[in-house]
Amino acid sequence: MKIRAKIILLLLLNLFILFNVIYLSFALINSLSFDLIPLFSDNPQVQNAFSEIIKEYHTLIIFTLVVVSYIWAISNPLIHILEWIVHLAKDRYIEPMDSNGIPRSLSKRKGKLKYSYVFFKSILNNLQYLTNTLKVHKENEKELDKLKKAWVADIAHDLKTPLSYIKGYSSMLSGSNQWTEQERKKFLLKIEEKAYYMESLLLDLNNVFEFERASIDIHTEQVDLVSFVREEIIDFANTPIMEKYHVKLIDNLECPFMYTFDPSLIRRVLQNLLTNAVLHNSEGTNVQVSISRDDLFVVLEVKDDGKGMEQETIRQLYSRKNKGEATNSNFMPRGLGIPIVKQFIEAHDGNMSIESEIGQGTSVKLYLPLSK
Predict the structure, then answer these.
(1) What is the SS3 string spanning 274-318?
(2) What is its EC number (predicted)?
């Protein structure tokens, strides 16, 4: 039933009750009013004056008494509702209580809705639903603010490590001329590596907030996936950070393999995974990127034979609030890379998995659906 129909029905019901009360009051006062006058005064003149007043203003008196009584009866629920709304406006997500801590709309003995509140039951139920909903939203908002502060604090913490490297190597280069050309090249390579890592962290942070604002648009186009991945790997392999690492592509698909996706997002995914595979492993680590398919998905796998991770670390990687933490102190924090990868893959209706063992390396598989 629509709200307007409910209001009209409630109004008609209240008018019906009001007129019945007035009718009964007329009958009661007509039979008792003149009999009650002698109880107040024995003076015949006073009794006659009261009788004249009752005869003259009989209808007005009865109507006034009934209306005032009726208004008093419904004022408590209305005041209760208004006070509840004020509570919500002040972020107090609870129904107004009496001095005993019991909601004012409920009976103290039976705990049921008071009779005078029955006509407002629908409004009270909706207010209770609104109160619970606002309370949950407020708690979620506080949790989200807490997580955002933690992300920013973690990013700031993660930036300190590469900054200390950059400052240290810069001081060593500028403070002495005793270094050989090979040592100078090594220091510069370390500085460039840490700068690349800082850039990756900042890009991750930017992507996090863009996704939180839902401001990242997915622009898909049909592209040869094999050629796209090959070009990205070649570009990454030619960066200075890859000088002492090895990366190769294993292509199990026919070429060209046309697939619809957002090149900018998948490029960011590959950059994140390849950067993780290099920055968190020792020099000489082999990184392998493979492309295959099954009946449902195109599968992109980035695999390395590096240090590997504990299962607890893998679990934490999926959550931004645990970003920067690691169960093993030998591992550098992995920034926001994995949550970003997960978001970008899910934006393509795909999913991902991570497998890793200490000393056995890490494998990250991305599953992109063949049909959308």
Answers:
(1) HHHHHHCCCCCCEEEEEEEECCCEEEEEEEECCCCCCHHHHHHHC
(2) 2.7.13.3
| Average pLDDT, rounded, for the chain | 77
Position 166 scores a pLDDT of 84
Q: 32-63: b or e for each residue (b if 16 or more CB lie within 10 Å)?
A: ebeeebeeeeeeeeeeeebeeebeeeeeeebe
CA torsion sign, 97 to 103 to 107 to 111? Answer: negative
Where do we find the tokens 């604090």?
Answer: 153
Q: Count the neighbouring beta carbons within 10 Å of the beta carbon of residue 287.
A: 25
Q: Which residues of 241-271 are buried (b: 16+ CB within 10 A; e: fewer)?
A: beeebebeeebebeeebebebbeebbbbbbb
Does the residue 245 lie in any domain?
Answer: yes
Instruction: Evaluate if pTM is beyond 0.70.
Output: no
The answer to the question of residue 200 being in a domain is: no
DSSP SS3 for 356: strand
What is the rounded CA–CA span in Å between residue 109 and residue 118? 17
Residues 242, 118 share a domain? no
| Total number of domains in the chain | 2
Domain of 10 in residue numbering reads as 3-134
SS3 5: helix
Q: What is the CATH number of the domain that holds 252?
A: 3.30.565.10
pLDDT of residue 236: 85
What pLDDT, in 10s, does the model give residues 247-258?
999 888 877 889
**pLDDT(202) > 90:** no
Token pair listed for 190: 């370390």
Running DSSP on this structure, what letter comes out for residue 215? -
Residue 256 lies in a domain: yes
The answer to the question of residue 75 being in a domain is yes
354 beta partners = 364
Contact 283, 352 (CB under 8 A): no
